[in-house]
Amino acid sequence: MQVQELVGIVPWTFIAQICNLFLQVYLIKRFLFKPINNILAKRKEMADAQIQDAVKAREEAEAMKSQYEQDMIQAKNKANEIVVSAQKTATAQSEELLREASRQAAAMKNKAEADIEQEKRKAVNEIKDEIGGMAMEIAGKVIEREISEEDHAKLIDDFIANVGETS
Amino acid sequence: MDLDISGAKVYFTIPTDIPILGDLQISETIVVSWIVMLLITGLCIWLTHDLKVENISKRQALAEMLVEQANKFVVGNMGEKFRHMIPFVAALFVTSVVSNLISLIGLRSPTADLTTEAAWAVVVFIMITAQKIKTGGFGGYLKGFTTPIAIMTPFNVLSELATPISMACRHFGNILSGVVINGLIYGALAVASSALLGLLPGVLGNVLSQIPILDVGIPAVLSVYFDWFSGFMQAFIFCMLTVMYIANAAEE
């Protein structure tokens, strides 16, 4: 078999090796660098997306927290308001009740006084009548004669007037 | 015992008879180069099939590591603007390494043929020159030869031409020396085992002395340096020089 020189440059082999080198560059680019770089880029994209998601989630959480705090403050204020207004209402009601009670008591007292007055008057009238009758009887007995109608009435009135003054 | 260390075998010749180029010879160098390319491409396809973004396999981790290493090597030595050079440098390195190591399976290294390294070195030389012209313009490139003084011009031209020659010859010399030394060791050990076993008496000695028993194992130890170390080292040096020369050409 024919053998080339140990140290020498063969033109066709030279050209072939240059072509081989560039072919190899293309092949290694196509089959190693392209897929791996794609994957690396994809992974980077994913990591970036995750970081962005995390940042967004944190922002949302912070917004929620501030909202919650605001709500809490509002709720506290409202509770305070309710308590204050309840206290006010209670005070007003109790005052109203007291007033009502005292008014009722006053009314009852008045009524009782009026009743007493009336009873007294009634009793006085009864006594008047009785005393009138008694006086008539006594007078009839004393003078033993029938008094005229006019004298009769006049006598009673005088007597009552006297009784009224004395009683 | 004859020891024959020759150039690449020619499997068949296609007579083209073009002046200067001569006949197209399909030599061992070309065939083994194709085998090397097939191996590398197959390896790349195997490494990158079934890629995933998450929960990656060891195979994918290795592929990613190799790519990252190539990126780091080129970008670290040349800067960010030479990103497009990454596949070229990677191809140069991996072709060189696989070509150097393919001698381990008994094939003749394509890099044991000066033509291969010369082809690579010329490509690199053209890249360096193109980069120089791109950086300083054609006038600036020519002017560069007259620095520091005009009388230095011949030496500058010489040193410029020495770049590809030294790159090619350094790589070739190391690989060829490995081939030569391995050949010598195999030959010497065959002779030694024949002499040693020939001491055995009678037919036994005659039969055993035909088998080069010492050739098993011992050359493997030496090939750690001459094939493995030298193979990686020369590939690395070639790529390092390529990267450095082009990066230097881009400066100024």
Written overview of the protein:
The complex is a heterodimer of chains A (167) and B (252). With 167 residues, chain A is an all-alpha fold. Helix content of chain A is 90%, strand content 0%. Chain A is built from two helices and no strands. The longest helix of chain A is centred in the middle third of the chain and has 133 residues, at 11-143. Chain A starts with 10 loop residues before the first helix and ends with a helix. Chain B is globular. Chain B is built from seven helices and two strands; from the N terminus they run ββααααααα. In chain B, 69% of the residues lie in helices and 6% in strands. In chain B, helix 1 (28-48) crosses helix 3. At the A-B interface, helix 1 of A face strand 1, strand 2, helix 1, helix 2 and helix 3 of B.
Brief characterization of the structure:
Chain A has two helices and no strands. Chain A is mainly alpha-helical.
